[in-house]
Design a protein that fits this description.
single chain; 793 residues; alpha/beta; TIM Barrel; five-stranded parallel β-sheet; 25 strands; globular; Class_I_gatase-like; signal
Length: 793
């Protein structure tokens, strides 16, 4: 009786304390409602704990509810500051006062929403209506990088967090680093032109060759407790370097503020990398690796938007001389061959000139190809230099680059980024894949996808399938996931179903860890220091990033953690689903990508047409054919690939000679070399199978491709009907050791789809929803953005 009294007293005091802390003024009716529901959920949680039921999910609901009620009160009391922050995003500028006025109650309503769902879900568990697996929590102290996944307590784990967390808060502050928001330690993005927040940058080295020990404390002072990752941040360059090297900023890019070919820049960075690599050797903060660059690209074509941000305003003498040397080797020291190819009259390689940025009218010409192929070579050389220096002192250090997805799936190839070479180079796959939950509010962004799909999934998907094809046995880390918001998209009242679907799909396709964009609330509810005062960032998107972000959306922030809890509860099943082979491969040629105006647009169309057929898609390249087991795929499709080097052509021929299968869409594909010269050779079947089509459309190619893999389609047949003439159900099937099948279904369409599951054998099936332990019939409806993980017997 005494213990019951103490517990009751504690709970009553707790409610009063919450009220006092959350709002010194009179409570709003919505806040009172939320607190009542909060008490109801906590009572249910006590009941569940007494029955040994895991309530990790509800603990997160409670935590976010309390935080956002506090945030709502801050926003209520600081409407002028909130309106100012809304004003930095041009989408909200005209209604910033209205948005600031409505925000506090919007947040309170969403708190009530997540509490209602938390109460409903836990009540179902207590009533025996559903059964849930206990959450497999991330061990933020002891998680390790395995061969191709992170491992926590002997099981696969998918760490999650937010990018660029609030600056100035100690890493031991559990209001910022916890199981709810994530607890990875990392050096965040440098929003100022100089050092901050544990990012490793060029200001660490002084002109006399010594290190700035005060700045170095940002690195050395990180407690060796939680796992994390570190950035090499290359935005700025010290004044003393500029004085010594007047050309140091010539050929800079948006997020690399200096010439990567400059010898002094390389000497500076070599010293910094080696020193910081030694200081952090074996530390937990590097368990998720070193990020070599933030969204690197060097677009070198005229009229590209990055030119407005000082990108590639010409090239330095160092870059030009290196290009001359590369050309000298490429043309075997025969200047007459280069002149004939370019239509020039250079007297020697030492007199070769080129205009950068380059006119896109030259696309498809030899000069265009030579520059852009060399441009990729030079950036790969820079990242090789970085990794070699790091590994010279810390050979076990993991590395990755935050590859910018649009540089892959958009058509331009003037950016210098060879995604295949860079993914082969680093020890982990790195990127910041994005998605759009609704049409973009930027007029120049094409939103035609929304006619067919509930959200824009294809950019994330094609990037994952390409990178995973290049390096299937590497950890895949999205160090700045833009699923919730970006410079192109955000929505204050976002759908939780979208959040669940996109995080699940990305993880299913290979994402092992992610840090979302972004967390910018201090524990008292105020925006972090960098978002206070007058904002004038180099990148204009940063100022408006807070408005409409998940920092204002309790339902969205809660759902991110909830879906990661569920993914981690089923981590072994997710790994099993994504370990499947990729029997159908699309041939990718960097040569055609450089020379063609719309190579990736056309590749994307074929990719989307095959994506919903129940098999993981993949890519092959010359290197993949030469370096990987050709038996790990069944059929290669060549589509709209007019330009290939002789080496690429011979790789395809060698694949056929070993018994491979190749489908070619038309006589145009493979017909030209990298310089647009007609190829006399034709592929032959060898020991394999060669299918030549005559100007076939995507429907015909798809039909032929699926016919070649019909015998290796999954044993579980997934039929879907969404009332449209195109598919929107993503399905994956894998057979388990006990003879049952794991089936994962996602609906990325606007409409509910009718699903029917059957077996090739014709045997009757039983279906169980693994998330609830409830049985299903073999015919059921799958709502828009719904995710199901099933066991089929």
């Amino acid at each position: 009786m005494k213990n019951q009294f103490n517990l009751l007293t504690f709970k009553i005091l707790g409610v009063f304390l919450i009220c006092a802390v959350l709002n010194s003024n009179a409570q709003s009716p919505l806040e009172k409602t939320a607190l009542t529901k909060l008490n109801e959920l906590e009572t249910l949680m006590d009941n569940a704990r007494s029955k040994s039921i895991d309530v990790t999910r509800e603990e997160t609901v409670v935590w976010f509810s309390k935080e956002f009620l506090k945030f709502a009160n801050w926003d209520e009391n600081n409407k002028e500051a909130v309106a100012k922050l809304f004003g930095y995003e041009r989408y909200y500028t005209d209604k910033k006062e209205q948005m600031a006025e409505e925000l506090p109650d919007f947040e309170r309503k969403k708190v009530i929403q997540i509490l209602d769902k938390g109460i409903e879900d836990l009540q179902k568990v207590l009533n025996g209506e559903i059964k849930r697996r206990p959450v497999n929590k991330v061990d933020w102290q002891n998680t390790k990088a395995g061969d191709n996944m992170f491992v926590s307590n002997g099981k696969p784990i998918f760490p999650y967090d937010y990018f660029s967390k609030t600056v100035g808060q100690p890493l031991t502050n559990t209001d910022v680093y916890n199981d709810h928001l994530g607890a990875l330690y990392h050096g965040g993005e440098n929003l100022y032109p100089v050092d901050h927040d544990r990012a490793i940058n060029s200001f660490l080295l002084k002109e006399d060759g010594t290190f700035d020990e005060e700045l170095m404390k940002e690195l050395t002072g990180i407690p060796d407790t939680n796992i994390g990752f570190l950035y090499y941040w290359s935005m700025g360059i010290p004044e003393w370097v500029e004085k010594k090297e007047p050309e140091i900023r010539k050929g800079r890019s948006l997020f690399t503020g200096f010439d990567i070919d400059n010898p002094l820049a390389r000497d500076l960075w070599g010293k910094i990398i080696r020193h910081t690599g030694e200081l952090t050797k074996g530390k937990k903060v590097t368990e998720l690796g070193f990020v070599f660059a933030n969204e690197p690209h060097w677009y070198s074509e005229k009229d590209f938007w990055t030119y407005n941000y000082d990108e590639m305003h010409g090239i330095s003498s160092y870059t030009l001389n290196n290009f001359r040397s590369w050309l000298k080797s490429k043309y075997n020291n025969k200047i007459q061959d280069l002149n004939a190819n370019w239509g020039e009259t250079f007297k020697s390689f030492d007199t070769v000139q080129i205009e950068i940025p380059m006119d896109t009218a030259l696309r498809g010409k030899p000069i265009w190809y030579d520059w852009n192929r060399y441009h990729m070579h030079r950036t790969t050389s820079w990242f090789t230099f970085m990794q070699d220096n790091l590994h010279s002192v810390n050979p076990d250090a993991d590395t990755h680059i935050k590859l910018w997805p649009r540089s892959f799936y958009e058509d331009s190839r003037s950016h210098g980024m060879d995604f295949e070479a860079l993914t082969e180079l680093t020890t982990m796959i790195g990127h910041d894949a994005k998605a759009l939950g609704d049409p973009s509010f930027r007029d120049h962004i094409n939103s035609d996808w929304h006619q067919d799909y509930a959200y824009k999934w294809d950019g994330m998907a094609i990037l994952h399938d390409f990178l995973e094809s290049v390096s299937p046995d590497k950890i895949n880390f999205n160090s700045e996931s833009h699923f919730l918001s970006s410079g192109q998209y955000r929505k204050l009242d976002m759908r939780t179903s979208y959040v669940r679907s996109i995080y699940w799909l990305a993880t299913l396709m290979g994402m092992d860890a992610n840090t979302g964009w972004f967390w910018a609330r201090d524990p008292d509810g105020s925006p972090e220091d960098r978002l206070e005062g007058d904002l004038n960032f180099f990148d204009p998107g940063l100022g408006g990033a807070y408005a409409g972000s998940n920092n204002m959306q309790p339902h969205i922030t809660n759902e991110v953690t909830q879906v990661m809890f569920d993914l981690n509860s089923f981590s072994e099943e997710i790994i099993a689903l994504r370990k499947q082979p990729r029997p159908l491969r699309l041939f990718y040629s960097e040569t055609s990508a450089i020379n063609s105006e719309d190579y990736m647009t056309q590749t994307g169309k074929l990719y989307k047409s095959l994506f919903f057929e129940g098999l993981p898609l993949g890519f092959v390249t010359k290197n993949i054919i030469e370096k990987q087991d050709n038996n790990s795929w069944n059929t290669v499709v060549v589509y709209k690939t007019k330009y290939v080097t002789d080496a690429e052509f011979e790789a395809l021929q060698s694949y056929l000679n070993k018994g491979g299968k190749v489908i070619i869409d038309s006589k145009e594909s493979l017909s030209m070399n990298e310089y647009g010269k007609k190829r006399s050779k034709k592929l032959t079947a060898g020991k394999g199978k060669l299918i030549f089509l005559e100007h076939a459309d995507i429907t015909k190619i798809k039909e032929k491709a699926l016919a070649e893999v019909v015998d290796i389609m999954p044993d579980v047949i997934v039929e879907s009907d969404n009332g449209k003439d195109f598919k929107t159900i993503i399905s994956r099937v894998v057979k388990q050791e006990n003879g049952s099948y794991l089936v994962n279904l996602l609906n990325v369409g606007h409409d509910t789809a009718k699903i029917k599951l059957s077996l090739k054998s014709g045997a009757q099936v039983s279906v169980k929803n693994l998330m609830t332990e409830n049985s299903l019939k073999n015919e059921f409806n799958l709502a828009s953005e719904e995710v199901l993980l099933l066991e089929v017997k």
